[in-house]
User: Fold these one by one.
Assistant:
Number 1:
Amino acid sequence: MNRVHQAWQRARRRRWWITALLLVPVALALTAIAARVAGINLGSIVLLATLLVVAGTATWRARRLDRHWLVRQLDTHAIAQDSADLLFADTAALNPLQQRQHARITAALQAAPPDLRAAWPKRWLAVAWCGGMLAAVLAVGWPAPGAPLPALPGRATPAASPAQPPSLQSSRLRIQAPAYTGQALRTQTALDAKVVQGSALDWSLRFSAQPTQAALQLHDGTRIALRRDGEAWVAQWKAAKPTLYRIVTEPALTTPRLYRLDVVPDRPPSVRVIAPDRTLVLATPGQRQWTLQFEASDDFGVAANAELHLTLAQGSGENITFREQRVALAGTGPATQRRFTRTLDLAALGAGPGNDVIAQLQVRDNRTPTAQTAQSTSLILRLPSEEQVLGTDLEGMVKKTLPAYFRSQRQIIIDAEALIKLRRQLPADEFVKRSDAIGVDQRILRLRYGQFLGEESEGGAKPPPTSDSLPTSDTPAAEHDEDHAHDTASARGGHDDHEHGATKADSAPVFGAATDVLSEYGHTHDHAEAATLLDPQTRAILKAALDQMWSSEGELRQGRPERALPFAYKALGFIKQVQQAERIYLARVGPELPPIDENRRMTGDRADLGNRASTITPVDAPDPAIVAVWQQLADTRSTPDLDALSQWLGRHQSRLSDPLSLAAAVEELRLAPDCASCRTTLRAQLWRALQRPLPQLERRSTPDPMAQRYLDALEGTR
């Protein structure tokens, strides 16, 4: 059966080639006619389409030689004995006689397979190729429309007919993008294109009749001259900005058309921070290294090397100094998406406790001759000062001694959540008692933070506690929550700096002494000016934290810890903001401050100082001439001033989202002044380009008598 199958496939291939060779001359003749009539562009399309039809027809005719055809062809040979259908039957379903006949035919065909291929139709092939070639030659040699006919011998040449207007017969546009983009040279027949900024464009145009002059007319008035090179007209231009253009010739083209050339600018690179995951990082005690990781991407590639700017901020308040240094980094990965990694040694940078390390990566792309740069966001590593470290250690030591009086806001939240889980296991009285104890801790913490705002501690002046009255670890905190001395002592680690209502053991109060009266009844920390100086924003955040603590305390004291948790979480968030509120602005404005002229300090010289008076810049009103053009477009009897519109478009092209669409609408109406749809399109494009007037303030309505008396009262209080 293998040899029979091979003979079958050879017959199919022979049928395919016969059909293709008969139809290819017809395809060539049709292509030549189309190219002569409509140009090379349409001829190429006709050639591709006809070849596809030839291939499809040949394949269809070859597949018609199926199994039934094979059986019929085998039965025509005596070797098959009219039993070729047994070759494709199931041997298990055949009777013994049919099986013997099947074996006999199979052996005979394997020994001498028949030739099933059709004979070559030489006569028809010769006719097809001769006819096709003759039609192609006649189409190519036929004179072009408008060309003068050759003069016959012996006859006078007739007077030359007027020159016919030329038409675009074929076009070719070669686009060579800048070398740094890595894009290969591409050639297209369409004159509309989308190219990278800086690409070199090369036009090659052929006309049905040679014009005397030709050029490319841009919509902004620029003209690119076409020069003749044999039968073609060529021009070169470097794409710098988006434009519309058309082909102008003398005599003019029969069907002028507007072409669009979109120029895509090279976007600057972008930088993304991968590690750390936040811009402000608080260093842990003993941290010696800081790992940074960035990812830079660009449409045409990022440079392999980048520069890491490091700024070390030292000091506090107004005595802040900056020290900058630059580190070169090598990237990894593909050119369009590189990664830059660096692990900083804090000791080598000279960073010590209380300093800030500010890092910023600067990358550039491969654009030539001038590369574009981009910077990442500033990353800040804040190293804790020695005072902060000592304070943290001291707080941990005190917590071991008096854990009930130094609960942090986070610990209060943990205790409240743990108490909620034990609700079903505890009696109601015990649950309320424990919730009240947590509320006392919340109150003590609120008073502790309230001292930074100059708030008065709750409770009256009482003598200092004795050793017998000090609470122990077994004494509930609720029994001492009203004791002002315990509140103040707990807030300051067991020492009351004010000692309200008491004197030292070695001094007795003197009746009538002003200092003793002030120390006994006066309180200096209830004045905001005497408290720790904080900026207004930090004071507002701390005040919000105290408000949330107050609400949390009220719910806890009433035995409702689940209602207190939202307030406690908000208070914790505000406290974290206050802890991070110092020197966050250094990364942005610190290194960019201008140097201070020491010679002009304290002299009162105000020369070269700008005017700080704020001025209001009026918004430009829409150009009345453009509004007039928009109104004229609605009236078909009027002629709009398209020249004024083109000049306005050239001045305001940068603020329009799609200036080429508006310019195309202007040119279309210029070419066809009577086109109603062109006027509608231009009017719609112009409406999008006009600026909308800002809404004006509405005049306030006249108030009624009661409202007028209220406004008069407000005026009187000023």
Number 2:
Amino acid sequence: MNMNSVNVAIAWCLAWGNERQPQFDITVLQEMRDALNQNSSKEVPEAVKAIVQQVEEFQSIKDDDDFPPTLDELKEKYSNLWNQTTKIGLVYGSATKIKQYVFESAKIQEIRGASGLLDRINIIDLPAFFNKTYQQESDKKNERNRYTIQCDEIKQWLNDNFHEDYKLSEVLIPELIIYSTGGKILAFCPAAYVHDLADAIEKRYTHETLTANSCAVGDTFRLLEIRFGLLKENIEDTPWLEWYHKNYQKPIIQAYFGYPKDETERLKVFKTRKSFNEITTKLAILFNQRRSGNHIPGRESTRRYPPMFETHPYLVRDGVENRSAILQVDKLARETYFSEPSVRKYLFGDRAKDGDPKEPQWYLDSKLEWRRGIVESWVDRFNKVFLERNQSLKSKYYGGINPKTVQIAQTLTQISNASNGFIAYIYADGNNMGGYIQKQIKTPQQYQEFSQDVELATQYAVYQALAENLRPHTLKGLNEEESDLRNGDLIHPFEIITIGGDDILIVVPANKALEISQMIGERFEGILLKEIKLVEIQPQIKEEKRILGNYKLKFDKPFEPRKIHRYQPLNAKRSECELSTSVGVLITAINTPIYYAKELIDQLLKSAKERAKKLKPVGYHGGTVDFLTLKSVTMIASSVKEFRQEALTKKNPQNLKLYAAPYTLHELGGLLTSIAALRKAKFPKSQLYQIRSLLERGKHTAILNYRYFRVRLKQGKSELESDFEKAWCTPKKENNGGNLAPWMYDDGSLEHDKSGYPLFETIWRDLVDIYEFMEEAEEEGSENLPVEAEL
């Protein structure tokens, strides 16, 4: 037999039946599963051959060619599937209010621990429910065995809590998982155990984290619904294509199916909607209902909210989360009070003995029973999954340094040590993920492959960007009590807080933030388009079956780069990938509170996404980046958008925008090139700042002062002319030989509201803000750069 994992899962659910007791002996089901797995030579047991034949018939249905235009044809063509009464369970769950849990503390170790604990639940604990052991990226037998032991302990917990009729782990098999990544899980399940599995997912999050929110829901569906979407109890009553042709103009129908232009397009949107996607949409609706506290019909358990911890005005608090402290620890760098949720975050974020499952003695002495299990850090994955399999980049990253001497940064201060006390938060999220799923993903198998593709592309894009742009850093001038590391120690100068699905949150030195952001966006698209082959990054992948290869766009309009890019548009490459990333980057001093920084990068990411959405109608499908340099904690009292509108937009005498962010990836590369040109020209910093201060006085004043300072330069004039003036500041009319430096003209062609257009914008302010964070030339030394009191 030759079935993929999805169809093995479907066969398992059908063979189990609708009741809590399987309709065949459990050994028969196991023999069937072994026989159906790929490359198996075993025979399917006689008792379940009829079920397997139904699954084979289901597997033979093609995506579009076999879509019946009428219900009569559906019944005639798939009569065996039409009469199937056994239902298949489907469960969807994830953590919720993740930011509230992860950023509850302002300490990076507890933020790292909170994120890591959620990761562990998603990629180790929940798959262990299905008897799937986490594949540790190690050749050491003892490390692999430790993961096996941990998964066995998780299964024991599951069976102790959910064992009515059958132990839940005996009901589940690895093939049932469609995906479990990015903090979310989607899995098949025998129909009678849907709510048990959903309850187990919610309970596991609460059991391990105590305070993190989670939600899981499930429902049962017929086999035909897995391919052709939701059907009525009496299938003949299901609204089908003829009904849609008659009613497609009704507003409620348009809200559900979309706004097709003609009959061909109506057929296409109906086929797209009536697929596995319609089932996942129903689960998403149930998920939102339960997350809001509403009762789900047929489910006895109420929403499992995290426990409430009582406090008292005379009890000692943990100092971070304001919960009653249960531990006073004096074995750390400074005396610390922990509540039970905070000590779990701390332990999971403790990297002093990275990967060691044994807790420190002070915790064991507390007699608390919770154990953190095995911790696999993102730096471990960076080394084992990426660098060990890419020796050229490993040599480039370490540059002759022994990897064993490089340690994980324990605080953000140590990361900022690589950039004169400044760090950058990089927050990236995928574009068009939901739209792609709705239009292109129609089967569980495609969901599974899509999830793997995005996860691989996201992880390797980050790994490659870090390896290409950073090097191990030697700590110097450090005066820190909260760390075991001292001056002279080598560290990895970055912190990966999370890489989940299409979400990325990392912390890097400020002087490399934009290069890393640009490369993440470019590599993400390149991997999905196969321009960067996985076999080159991960040689163990001999075939690229995990990459679908259908992410390339098909264009019916000519490429008009002048409508998209402001920097050398004719040199821009057309974005060809359906999926891309938007990135928010906040460059800030180390003393900026993390909760405040997180709020700002959320806004910057939203701004970058708005730019991507605005450019999409004119043919740009690539990534966008918005960034902000924050040199004073109280610099922005409101939102980033309001700050820019009120402080960086002038309407007299001309409409002036004193910034140019967000940028496309091509424009961001141009910004970095322009900074290099300024350095080549040795443009005096005092004059950089003076031109910036004169921008708000008007277009002509700024142009005059720029020209005055430019002609006085002794070197680098040609680079400045080619990489800044001609690259950014040429007039819209092609035959005009002059330039508007330091301004660019925006006629407002991409805007809906024309009231503030046309206007003049400039990259000069963005350029100057980034200038001092970039690496100094060798002859200028490595002394700290001056920090201004205001933006």
Number 3:
Amino acid sequence: MTRWNRTLLLGVASAAMLVGIGHAQTLTVTPAETLETQGLTVIVDQNHFSPIFFDEKNAGIQMVLHGERIATDGAVRLDRTPEQWAPVPEFVSRSLGNEPNQVVVRSAFKQQQLAYSVKVTAEPGGFRIAVDLDQPLPAALAGKAGFNLDFLPSAYFGKTYLTDTAPGLFPRHPTGPMAKDGSGDPLPLGSATKAITLSPEDPLTRVSITSDTGRLDLYDARARAQNGWFVVRSLIAPGAQKDAVVWHVRPNVVKNWTRDPVVSFNQAGYTPGRAKVALIELDPNFKAPAEAELVRLTADGTQSVLRARTQTRGHWTRYDYAAFDFSSVREPGLYAIRYAGRTTNPFRIAPDAYQRLWQTSLDTFIAEQMDHVGIREQYRVWSSPSHLDDARQAPPNITHFDGYKMGPNLDSPFKAGEHIPGLAVGGWQDAGDYDIQTPENAAVTRDLVWARELFGLDWDETSIDEAARKVEIRRPDGIEDAVQQIRHGTLQLLAQYKVFGHAIVGIVDPSLRQYAHLGDAGSQTDNRLYDAKLGKDEIRGNASGTPDDRWAFTTDLPANNLAVAGGLAAASRALAGSDPKMAGEALAAAKVLWSKQQGGVVKAGDGRDDSSSPRSAEAANVVATVELLLTTRDRVYADRLRQLQPVIAQNFPWLAGAAVRAIPLMDANYRAALVPLVQDMKAKADGPMTANPFGVPISDGSWAGSNQVVSFGTTMYLLHKAFPEIVGTAYTLNAIDYVLGRHPANNLSLVSTVGTASKLIGYGHNRADYSFIPGGMVPGVLIVKPDYPEAKTDWPFLWFENEYTVSTTSAYILAARAAAVVAAETQ
């Protein structure tokens, strides 16, 4: 929620809050099997624990109270304060119960032989949670199994709680107490024999929980892991079976509460001639004004420029939408929107509104993600040289906790655990977890090449010395930053090819404790090569007995080979002038990797279990073929591309950009075959692909979809340039509007520091500081099933909404440049 929206909410509810008035709400079960009343939604296991990442803080019983998801993970757990990879129950089924307004969920810990049901039943003032075990607890789980409900820390910072009648204060920073038995477990902040009340002083977040079956404990799980929440927990008693845990949950609901309107717009502003439409997100119970106003900010205050009726945009998820069109206003200046008695933050209308959208993403975020170098920005050190001990061979037959997989064959000349020389060069750490994902590194390399070729990236703010492993941001060195970054990515891709003869899955930390490292990438390992002959803390020269060297997952997969072939072929074009030797090596490797896969590409996937859309080797073959054609103009690649036209047709939404880039080098029949595909793409973009008020494809999966949106924007730009008679410019502008603020839930720019108001608490290397990395783009709005769009502003640890990734940000650079071009066309 933006500061503006939060302030308005406090103002609307002020009378109720001053006296703490709520009402005994009556919850009813909806067709989606949630429990609802005005101001409260109880989500019952519509979102499941992940089979890969386990506890993502979006599962079990959840509460959306006064518009904010304040509680999650209501479930039986085997730890008092579970960490992300602690055991989680497996969802079995959900059904309506025998009692009115009751939902029953069956779950199980199969390995521990614990099966149970949880009944959630509406009752006066709230709802009842009852846990029934199929059999009494196995002896091994006595004192371990209990029912937990997690509460969002940032919703309770600085507020108080009552354990029975004993008062306490929720700490802003975890302070313990900790168990003294060496377990690393927190002790309770407080315990209650009967009831716990959270924030009795705040009617918006007040929740009381009463237990019929035993003690209630309140924990601060952040004392064990920074991403932990406040946990209310009751142990399951040995021998208990029916009604093993019974809670009565009483969320305070402010009578007749309605969520404040969210007025969303492009925080970077607008060029004078382009369409300018703000969207207003409305609680269906809110009495929405039919008119909005545009005001101009002047030295003497504000002046009204335009009053206009809003236009309905229908209902989507749980909200109604209206549009405020101020396209007729073209005069440059500073403006804001007034609606429902409040004024938004300002934005610009100016011819140069989009001239500085992408530079910070290139010169700061992508630079900060560079691996195997030290990164400094004036007085600030982002990282000392990192991972100089790369890498050891990962063992066979494992699935890593971050989703990397290794089958029985290593596809490597090295034995499990053996050091692999030559990999400690180049590359970018994919996200906040310091790993190198090979296909993502290839994507960044290609994105930067495309951005230079299509739009120009004439920008030099960074000094990069690969030999000295030294990077300085805000220190120009006379060499284009994009070229240096392309070279940095190429170093890693070529290193893999030189060592293995093929692309690998990636390089990642071997242990959970190391993987959870927060802060300086240079301190994640000791930068010394592991030597098993040395003692644990022994150091001898450049070797140590500490097994912290990252693992290389080396499976030889067609999709990865082709992704790297495409990246290297593109890089060879960009590097031809500045580093012809590397350009030649990149092209030679690309040709070999491509040729290797032309005998029949069938095996899909990229060697990671967490991919929401496993890479198609056939689709990757199209991209690689196009890149080699653009680089060499060799007929062999044109002939192969013609053979791959059925693949293009089958995967056109993903391959359209690459396909149209090849048009100048193909015959007229090739272009003609694309026309019906482009027409169909436009029809989908006007219909099911963008069936929401924002005009862009919004993901409804487990990872929010800003990457999908910017990729759509770039694709539609390329289709517009190739087929202007079919595809217009609105799609690309809708995409940039979305990521820069015109999206559900709030109106912050999803690119940190870009725009007047942007995402300033993100999931990056510095997330424990509740901070941001300039220029990084976060995933953005997640649809918490069944219908709650969420983009939390004050809690960094929801990776699916807040985690910067390097390939997402390079995709944003392309979309931002495309938007600037099409905006200029409208002047």
Number 4:
Amino acid sequence: MTEQGNSQADLRKLKKKRLIRINVFFFFVFLLFVALIIRLGVVQIVQGEEFSKEVSRTESNYASFPAPRGKMYDRNGNVLVENIGVDAITYTVEKTTKAKDKLETAAKLASLIEVPSEFLKERDLKDYWVAANPEDAADLLTEKEKSKKGSETYKLQIDRVPVKELEALKANPAELEIAALYTRFSSGYAYEPQIVTATGLTKGEELTKDELTRVAENLEDLPGVDIITDWKRSYPNGDLLTGVFGSVTTPKQGILEARKSYYTARGYARNERVGRSNLEYQYEDYLNPRKSKVQYVTDTSGNVISESVIDEGRRGYDLKLSFDLELQKQLDQIVEQELKVARGKSGNYLVDRAFAVMMDPHTGDVLAMSGKKYSFEEGKMNDYIIGNFTSQYEIGSTIKGATVLAGYQNGMSMGTVYNDAPILIKDTKPKKSVRNMGPVNEITALKRSSNVYMFRIAFDIAGENYVPNAPFNASSADFQKMRNYYSQFGLGVPTGIDLPNEATGQQNTPPDAGILLNMAIGQYDTYTPLQMAQYVSVIANGGYRVEPRIVTSIHSPDENKQLGPVVTEHEATILNRINNTPEQIRQVQRGFEAVTKTGGTAAGYFGDNDVAGKTGTSQTLYYGEQSKRAYWGTETNNLAFVGYYPASNPEVAISVIVPYTGKTAAHPVNKLIAKRAIEAYANLDPKPQNQDADSSADVSSQEEAGQE
């Protein structure tokens, strides 16, 4: 009994322990439920509103759509540069777009259109291969490397793309087209339409009507793809002045890498078209349009909920240029015709270029500018208008007006007479004029182009008395002094024209003192045709160096194909006044007027037209086209002319330079170009009007020409 009783007592104790454990368990479960209920209550009642906002949270994204650039007009309101509409295919990436989505769309689109792939770089091909072969790309990494950040692993994959895979890709034209589309799809930001291809937007790339039709019929199967009307630059006057206008990048080229930070700071997209050169580059801030902006509202998954236009945008501002369209056409024709004639003359087998600049001497307006260059390699004449401000040449006796005025500044008296006879310097060949002229003053020296008169001025500048057969000593300070005199006229310094990459001429270290004499007759330092136009304008307007300008004003766009309201004026700018009296300047003007009269070096060329000017011939060596390298070092002449019309009240200044004519050729191509150009201006109807009379240089009163 006792053992049985103990056994039952133990069983009761065990049941009691189990019951206690069960109760503890249920109590613990009860506490968990209580905690859960309290937590749910807090979430729903206390934090419910906050979580509701999180669920419905949205994000605003902004995208810009292309608008045309500003137009360019001539001074009379004629359109020089405009935009025309072109059909284009775009692709827009959304935040939910994956690489495989772009690949699928690229493959479908490639089957509908032809896309060039020549632009693809090796990095583009690697990017495509990694995207198209994710599993193979993953195998390029070790297990440890796979745990690194995405950017780090991607770089490793790019570096390890097998060469044989790239070679296979390059040998597959169909896949290259897909790679080209994928690259263009990936070139922009989310919601920013990327131009994939367009009609005539890129040279050699055309989008046919059949291709457009096929794409339009399959748009539902091409997510992100759209057809829009885009724009491209158009030139109503053909190639006229295109060298000055410059060019614009294509969507494929996008922003200029050298100015990347400049563009990105201003909100440019990477594939945005920008000015590459000259006016398009110089006035990018004005010509660039304000693109239309669209706001996209997306949910937390990146799905677009709504979109709205927040800025309609506008095309870029328009530029009013200083050029006169009709005068420009005629000047281009004159320069090309006369260059062709000159090339046909005996001894002129190396002459390959000619330049002419016509400028308002009071405002600096460049009315017309022409440059032509014959290509020996291509056998044809090409435009070389930029050579007027990017190339430089020795300009010979045209500089003598500045030399005389430098002599005055150095203390020479007006009316000083020097005997034009050979200058004899110890251990040096005689230095002389074309012919001995006997006693001459500055007017006769300019009229007949006396070298000796200018040599004597150089002696004075160097502080040397001329003694026959004695040595001539000139220091580096004397050379700098001469160049400082010339710089007042814009020679050897920037003209200030509103174009990039302007050359300032070349000033070398002289090998000996005698070079100072050569400088005085334009036979050493080099200058651009534009600098020569600025220089002669100083003489024409009475002593003021005026900054040349291409753009005279900037205007708001007008949809009636005319210039809109003025946004800003580019006022005429006087850079400096030369350190000469009005009487001294007038004396040089008399000399220039005598040049075109009987006995002058340009007598008989300008007829009844009241022209003043100065001719120039510089002995130089040929260093032209690479294809003519065998002739480098051949002795040639540079022919030049500077002048203004009418001499009695100048309206236009002109400079002409024709380098590399034959040493024995007597064909006066420089004078013929100047003659015809002045005639074209004189016969122009209407003539260019001074667009900034209030800011023009104050020309000294003109006196009647005196006897030489």
